[in-house]
Amino acid sequence: MQFICYTRCGTCQKAKKYLTEHNIPYEERDIKTEKPTAEELSSWIEKSGLPSRKFFNTSGKLYKDMELSKKLPGMSIEEQIRLLATDGMLVKRPILVGEHGVLVGFKEAEWEEALQGKQ
Q1: CA–CA distances in Å: residue 22 to residues 7, 25, 115, 118
Q2: Is 49 left (phi over 0), alpha (psi -120 to 50) or beta?
Q3: Helix/strand/coil for 6
Q4: Model-level pTM?
Q5: Which strands form 95-98's sheet, in the order they lie side by side?
Q6: Could you give the CA distance from residue 88 to residue 21 in angstroms, rounded to a whole number?
Q7: What whole-number distance in Å separates Cα of residue 118 and Cα of residue 78?
Q8: Measuring CA to CA, how many Å separate 104 from each of 70, 74, 84?
Q9: For residue range 76-100, what is the model confidence (pLDDT) as tens digits?
Q10: Is the separation of the CB atoms in 4 and 83 below 8 Å?
Q11: pLDDT tens by residue, 26-52
């Protein structure tokens, strides 16, 4: 599994601790230094079953500075994906990508259910 995170993010640190404590193997990728491509994002969105807007880091400074809460509703999915690919700090994290699906953000109960028996 690929664990996409930002090392200074508290939620990412909690998710990493969860993976380690549950002996779930993963490859770590820093979203700031190795931002996701539009192709990766498109694939992850499809695999997750979530709408593209769920991939935006709505609590981030960049999101707020760009006033994206006002702009996203008028953008196509393709435009949203292209925008997400411009800066890893726009992307909600952590993201866990595995062969069985994609998890966005960290909610322990969701991860527990999704990862049950997949170690």
Answers
A1: 20, 9, 10, 11
A2: left
A3: coil
A4: 0.92
A5: 27-30, 2-5, 95-98, 101-104
A6: 27
A7: 32
A8: 22, 23, 14
A9: 999 999 999 999 999 999 999 998 7
A10: no
A11: 999 999 999 999 999 999 999 999 999
